[in-house]
Design a protein that fits this description.
Layout: H1 10-26, H2 32-61, H3 65-68, H4 75-107, E1 110-113, H5 123-134, E2 141-142, E3 157-165, E4 168-176, H6 179-182, E5 186-192, E6 195-200, H7 201-207, H8 209-212, E7 218-228, H9 242-253, E8 258-264, H10 269-279, E9 286-289, H11 328-334, E10 337-341, H12 347-358, E11 362-369, H13 377-387, E12 391-396, H14 404-417, E13 420-422, E14 429-430, E15 433-441, E16 444-452, E17 464-471, H15 474-489, E18 500-502, H16 506-522, E19 528-533, H17 539-551, E20 554-559, E21 576-581, E22 586-587, E23 590-594, E24 601-605, H18 611-615, E25 617-623, H19 627-642, E26 647-648, H20 664-680
Parallel strand pairs: 1-6, 8-9, 11-12, 12-13, 14-25, 17-22, 19-20, 20-21
Antiparallel strand pairs: 2-4, 3-4, 3-7, 5-6, 7-8, 10-17, 11-15, 15-16, 16-17, 18-25, 19-23, 21-26, 23-24, 24-25
Helix pairs in contact: 1-2, 1-4, 2-4, 12-13, 13-14, 16-17, 19-20
Length: about 675
């Protein structure tokens, strides 16, 4: 990182974050099978990075020179830096796998075999398995001189095969490794005396190559994989049906421009040249890799029921006050409740929605859906509410990258059930997480709201660390109602006093709150900011933080991913401290705390400080009015600020100290577990 740069490269900062994921795979204190999962996460992240960010850089390079000169950095120069760093990380990935993961597996009597290390007694099983389960899935293509083009599917593993026969010129073939059709990338072999054996599906194929090409004497296979541009090519016009446009763009995605061809570094240069000609790419798209690609397939690595090689289970905890509530709405009428995922159960959200669907007094349900589970219980509850005759309004963001098709399917099911479905907004993505339930009470209608930092997704709620608030506080519910009304009437003059809503008032409100800290510091009063987010990229907000630092405001940032701010630089950011936590769960919550001269203000939000979040998305931040809930979140933030186990600088140096070991995520679970147990230990009569 360049010390004299005010704004660091977004692309290189993201790569630094992904290296923190790889650090978890390298960390011997992490259970072995969990380390393998981090290899998969690293690989999956990098695939998406090439499909989106590298593809974007290549698009920028194609712009006219005059246009490129207006950019903060020359995209060609930045792409060169990116590819150098990717090459370094790919090398580290290979080293980690070969020198750490494989030996650790062997120490646990788990052997990852290839076609050359099979034991003689195992060979019949592999031959039979290939003949019965694999061979019919393969469609090899001999690349004869008549073949002048071959299309490689996006993110699909292929074997490029060199064939030789005595007295004949070498031949080349290619075949797709049928991971999806097979159901897994791995084949478990029979266990022998407590020893476990597994092979890559590609190595099973390698071992049996001459069964596919019996007329040749030898066959050697090298893995290749292509990543294609995933940006949707569409204009968001009101005049055309957005759902239909998304559908068309999804079909184009498979045909997207190549952003990377990953190849085995052992591949003969002549074979590389041949495949480049066939798929019509240049050497600029080539990325050197190792024997195995698509490490994301390690999500499916067999665990052989070896539970000691995984993290100890942390079952989702009941909420201390909600766990014995048969009906949530009456409880929420009395007070606010805050949930912390994945430490506490997401089931309360499902209970909230299903209760609303079944309650005859509930007249309306509104919700925003950005990413939902494949068999979403949330969406099913909304369908049920619509079928029960409730007035259901659902904003389904059909532009949520890589979830477009799933969201379109749910949009159609909701429409069929009678719901009013709004497929996002032209020019904006709807990223705020909101639900509003209206119930007819004795004295008139009452609104109940759920506001969250995370998606309505019961699956990811088990691994994403988020906060969710249940409230009937009219200060919040009235403004949540205004957000939903905006989706219907598109009136851009909505006013919000308590909620922070992008693109309306969120940016300006954050700036005003920072300015207040600056003024307090200039008056000699205590002034500080504690800001937790996934990404910090917006230049205007970064410059405002530099201004606050120069005024003497103490700034603590907890930023998991991209951080384009340069901390700790003399005369620029001396008072800014940045830490990043990567651990068992994905830190996903956004929390913004402002000192306010001893009367702290705290907001929780769906938005990061990226230009897209503050200016081109509908995002929602909300204050915590309840003092007990503020103390609870403040304690959790303090745990993260004290973390000396999994906290790192944005240069990926661990933040160690001589104090008592603190691991924020584990300490959070213990804290919330103690809250629940303390309530449970009180006799029922005194509760």
């Amino acid at each position: 990182m360049e010390e004299n740069k005010k704004i660091q490269s977004r692309e290189l900062s993201w790569l630094a974050f992904n290296y923190r994921v790889l650090q978890e795979a390298k960390d011997a204190s992490v259970p072995l099978l969990e380390r393998i999962q981090f290899l998969a996460i690293f690989s999956s992240n990098l695939d998406e990075y090439f499909k989106v960010r590298v593809a974007t850089l290549k698009r920028l390079i194609q712009l006219k020179k005059r246009t490129r000169q207006k950019l903060a950095q020359d995209p060609s120069e930045e792409l060169d830096q990116v590819l150098v760093e990717v090459a370094r990380q790919q090398e580290k990935l290979g080293e980690t796998f070969r020198n750490q993961i494989l030996p650790a597996l062997r120490a646990e009597k788990i052997y990852l075999l290839d076609e050359k290390t099979l034991r003689p007694e195992q060979e019949p099983f592999v031959r039979d398995y290939f003949a019965l389960k694999v061979q019919e899935l393969l469609k090899p293509v001999l690349l004869t001189p008549e073949v002048n083009f071959f299309f490689l599917k996006d993110q699909t593993l292929y074997l490029l095969i060199e064939l030789t026969q005595a007295g004949q010129p070498a031949a080349t073939a290619i075949l797709e490794v049928p991971t999806q059709k097979h159901g897994s990338r791995f084949v478990a072999l029979p266990t022998q005396q407590a020893e476990h054996f597994v092979m890559f599906l590609d190595d099973v194929i390698r071992f049996n190559l001459l069964q596919l090409f019996p007329e040749y004497d030898s066959a050697t296979a090298y893995a290749i994989k292509i990543s294609r541009d995933a940006e949707l090519d569409m204009e968001e016009e009101v005049s055309e049906n957005l759902l239909a446009k998304i559908k068309r763009s999804l079909k184009k995605r498979e045909m997207g421009y190549p952003s990377r061809l990953l190849y085995d570094s052992a591949t003969p240069p002549l074979l590389i040249d041949a495949i480049c000609r066939l798929i019509h790419i240049t050497s600029e798209e080539l990325v050197r890799g190792s024997r195995y690609h698509n490490f994301r397939d390690f999500f499916g690595f067999p665990d052989f029921n070896l539970t000691h090689l995984k993290y100890l289970p942390q079952p989702a905890l009941p909420h201390p006050e909600l766990h014995n509530q048969k009906k949530l709405l009456p409880a929420i009428y009395q007070q606010d409740f805050l949930l912390h995922y994945p430490y506490q159960s997401f089931e309360y959200v499902l209970q909230f929605l299903n209760e609303a669907a079944a309650d005859p007094a509930v007249t309306a349900v509104s919700a925003t859906l950005y990413r939902v589970a494949d068999k979403s219980k949330v969406a099913k509850a909304l369908v049920k509410a619509a079928k029960k005759g409730k007035r259901v309004t659902v904003i389904v963001e059909v532009k949520a990258r890589f979830d477009e098709e799933s969201n379109i399917n749910w949009a159609r099911k909701l429409e069929k059930a009678g719901a009013t479905v709004i497929p996002g907004l032209p020019g904006y993505k709807v990223h705020g997480k909101l639900c509003l339930v209206t119930r007819q009470e004795k004295n008139g209608p009452v609104d109940y709201a759920y506001l969250s930092t995370g998606n309505f997704n019961e699956k990811t709620s088990r691994i994403y660390a988020d906060h969710g608030l249940f409230t009937s506080d009219v200060r919040l519910t009235k403004e949540v109602q205004s957000v939903f009304q905006f989706f219907l009437d598109r009136d851009s003059n909505k006013q919000f006093r308590h909620l922070l809503v992008a693109p309306f008032n969120m940016r300006n409100k954050f700036v005003k709150l920072i300015n207040k800290e600056i003024k307090n510091a200039q008056k000699g009063l205590a002034a500080y900011l504690i800001l937790k987010m996934n990404s910090l990229q917006d230049e205007a907000m970064i410059l405002k933080l530099y201004e606050a630092s120069a005024a003497g405001v103490r700034i603590d940032l907890i930023v998991r991913g991209i951080c384009c701010l340069n901390p700790g630089v003399k005369n620029l950011s001396e008072n800014i401290h940045v830490r990043s936590i990567v651990d068992r769960y994905l830190e996903h919550a956004r929390v913004f705390i402002f000192g306010n001269n001893g009367n702290e203000k705290m907001y929780i939000a769906s938005a990061d400080w990226m230009t897209r979040n503050l200016s081109r998305r509908v995002e929602v931040g909300f204050p915590l009015f309840d003092e007990a809930l503020r103390r609870e979140v403040r304690h959790l933030i303090e745990l993260q600020l004290r973390d000396n186990t999994k906290a790192r600088t944005i240069q990926n140096k661990y933040l160690r100290n001589d104090g008592k070991e603190t691991r924020a995520q584990f300490a959070t679970y213990s804290y919330l577990q103690n809250l629940y147990q303390a309530v449970e230990s009180v006799p029922a009569a005194s509760q």
